[in-house]
Amino acid sequence: MTDLSIGELSRRVEVKVPTIRYYEQIGLLPSPPRTEGRQRRYGPDDVARLSFIRHARDLGFEVEAIRELLSLSARPDEPCEAADRIVLRHLESVERRIERLTLLRAELRHMLDDCSHGPVRECRIIQVLADHDQCRHEHGRVT
């Protein structure tokens, strides 16, 4: 496993080849050695690092937070307060999104409940979408 192609790395970690190239481009993955034919070659450390990145992305961490966490993981004897702060920031962001999505769900339910299922000219859904002031909640943009 010390001489994986980019395709094999992609299959093992279940990350698309263009994504691996992107992570190399932005510095999350180090540039790998290449064969004489210019093919990338990866080893166990690359598999572990890409797995870390994939898991962090699956949990919704932004690239910069992952970069910070990778930097911290390279210093295993240091206290983990910095990692705690990164996760706390992310958790707060997730909780804000959940609040906005909860309001959005309620608004969509109200739109459906208020719909009389008659002709479109009387459709409550169309009316509410056309006039934000008719919304029952301030739901804002969901990001």
What features would you describe in this structure?
The protein is elongated and about 70 Å long. 59% of the residues lie in helices and 0% in strands. It contains 6 helices and no strands. With 143 residues, the protein is mainly alpha-helical. 10% of the residues are buried.
| Unreliable parts | none
The backbone outline, from C-alpha atoms, is elongated
Largest sheet: none
**Between the first and last Cα atoms, what is the distance in angstroms?**
40 Å
Number of helices: 6
CATH class of the largest domain equals Mainly Alpha
Outline of the structure:
With 143 residues, this protein is an all-alpha fold. The chain has helices spanning 6-13, 17-25, 44-58, 63-73, 81-114, 124-130.
Q: Strands, helices and their partners?
A:
Layout: H1 6-13, H2 17-25, H3 44-58, H4 63-73, H5 81-114, H6 124-130
